[in-house]
Amino acid sequence: MRQWYKHVVGIETSSSYPAKDHAWNEISGRYVPVNDFYKPANWRKQSLNNKQASEGSIDDQKQAEELFDNTMKQIIDSYNKMLELGIAKEEARIILPLNQYTEVYWTASFQAIMNFIELRDDPHAQFEIREYALAMKDMMFELFPETTKIWLDVYETMKTLSEPGKTIK
Ligand SMILES: Cc1cc2nc3c(=O)[nH]c(=O)nc-3n(C[C@H](O)[C@H](O)[C@H](O)COP(=O)(O)OP(=O)(O)OC[C@H]3O[C@@H](n4cnc5c(N)ncnc54)[C@H](O)[C@@H]3O)c2cc1C
Buried (b) or exposed (e) across 52-87, using 16+ Cβ within 10 A? Predict the structure, then answer.
C-alpha cells in the first residue's frame, strides 16, 4: 500500500465531489480494528545485484514460515489485548506490521492508472504490487477494452524502440 500511495496524480481540487481534494480515501485503523494480514506463499531470496529486489526462494521455507507465524501471533494477541485494555485503536495500531490489509478508494484518471500499470507490472517492481497491477490491467481490459489495448500497444512499441540498437523510422 505504501508503494501504491506513491501514485499521487488524481488529486482534484475544483469540484464538490466527495473525493474532492484527495486521490486516496482509506478505511482508517483509527476507527476500524485491524484483523486481516498478508502471508507470503514464498519466502524470496535477497537479490545480490539489486539492493531493492528479490529473486527465487530461500531454501529454508519452513523456518521462515515459523518465524513469521510466531511473530504474527504475538503481535495480533498483543494488539487485541491492548484494545481490551481500552487503549485507543489509533494508538494500539502502532505495533502492527506492514503486512496489514487495508481498504482504499483510489480516484484516478485513465492515464494515471495506465502509468501505475506500466511502472508496477514490470520486472523491477515488487512481486506483491505487481499482482495488483496485473489485476488492475484485467479490470481495465474489461471496462475499457479498446482504449486499454491501444494504450498498451503504444507502450509496448515505445518500450521496444527504446531498447539499444532500435530506432524510430
Ligand atoms: C521499481 C520502482 C522502485 C521505486 N523505488 C522507490 C524508492 O526507493 N523510493 C521512493 O520514494 N519511491 C520509489 N518508487 C516510486 C516512484 O519514485 C514514484 O513515486 C511512483 O512510481 C509513482 O510514479 P509517478 O510519479 O509516475 O506516478 P503519479 O504520481 O501517478 O504521476 C503520474 C505522472 O504524472 C506526472 N507528475 C506527477 N507529479 C507531478 C508533478 N508534481 N509535476 C509534474 N508532473 C507530475 C509525471 O509524468 C508522472 O509520471 C519506485 C517505483 C518503482 C516502480
Answer: ebeeeeeeeeeebeeebeeeeeebeeebeebeeeee
Report the chain (169 residues): mean pLDDT per 10 consecutive residues: 88 62 82 94 95 94 98 98 97 97 90 93 95 97 97 88 71
Question: 100: which strand partners?
Answer: 37
CA atoms within 13 A on the CB side of 10: 22
* Residues 68 and 129 sit within 8 Å (Cβ to Cβ): no
Residue 110 CA from chain centroid, whole number: 18
**Distance between CA atoms of residues 169 and 143, nearest Å:** 33
Q: Please say if 120 is a catalytic residue.
A: yes
**Among protein residues, the one whose CA lies closest to atom 12 of ligand 1:** 6
Q: What's the maximum distance between 2 C-alpha atoms anywhere in the chain? A: 70
Give the CA angle between residues 46, 52, 58 to the nearest 5°.
15
Residue 112 near ligand 1, beta carbon < 6 Å: yes
- What residue's CA is closest to ligand 1, atom 24? 7
pTM given for the model: 0.87
